[in-house]
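Hi F.,

I've been meaning to write this up properly since the lab meeting, where we talked about keeping a consistent format for the predictions we share between groups. The idea is simple: the sequence comes first, exactly as it goes in, then the structure tokens exactly as they come out, then a line or two of notes. No screenshots and no reformatting. I'm using this chain as the first example so we have something concrete to point to.
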Amino acid sequence: MGKISRGQRINCYFKIFEQIYENPLLSIYDVSQNIGLSRNTVAKYMNEMYQSGILCGPQLCMKAASNYREYVYLLNFSDPQLCFRGLKKFPHVLYHALTFGDFNAMILTDRPLDFSKLVGFQNTVHWGVRNCVYTPKAELITWDKWLKGCHEQIAAFTPRWTQTKDRKLTSLPWGEKEWTLFHAFKSNLRQPVTPLLRKIKVRYEIYSAWMKTLQEHCTIHTGFYPHGHEAYGSHCFLVFTDYKEEVKSLFSSFPATPTIMEVGFALLVSVKVTSSRHAGDLFSTFYDMKVKKLIKAFSQAYVLSHSEEFQTIL
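Output, unedited:
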């Protein structure tokens, strides 16, 4: 077989991503059978995808439960870099980012915290319980094709009455061993199981039982970034809308995996783009959504730095 072009290789990468997106634990053999490539080729391509940041995950996020919740805070500080450094080992802070825009700090915690007591605190833009997290499946399309389809959807939108359905929260039954497993596998559910279990000293029987609970208590996210994750800039848009499903739909078939999380009654949409032109197109798109009354208002910020290496998708 001769040398293939980058375009052909990206097509192969995307086929592999599609398989992992639909079935995060699918074996390399089954992937190879489904897409018509040899097992060795799939293994080689997957390694290249992980090494170059084209494939990320599958990662785990917790769902809100009756006895466990996570909270997102979008804040402003007079010295955001000092805040960012200070939060590094702050109790109950799971993730934090230094941002630039309508808010300069984005923080995820596992309990409500009063950040107004911190030095340099200015104001809270928004905070709330993080409910479900969504990563619509990326598509192998050009930016212009996605943008055209997005604006066609916006143009066709007509405001209407909607009814919000509250999700019933279940109880999270995890103990110490289950949380140990979550933290071990949260960045990549496809890690080799036996050596990791040996390292964290958890029996396979406990792992097997824990895996059966994931669907109920976690969401699973596999990201695809054709240019490699580091080539993208991350823009976050806090959106207030009565039409959450329509907003989610707009970012389906995006050229790189977006992340949409429910934060209280708002949506936090994180999209990754490779150029200032694309960023400008995004801003125009959100303004168009507001004009069409698809959204009521939005705030935005660009992620400059974040706390955990594994948080590539989020």
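Notes:
The chain has four domains: 6-52, 70-130, 131-161+222-305, 174-212.
The chain has a mean pLDDT of 92.

If this format works for you, I'll send the rest the same way.

G.
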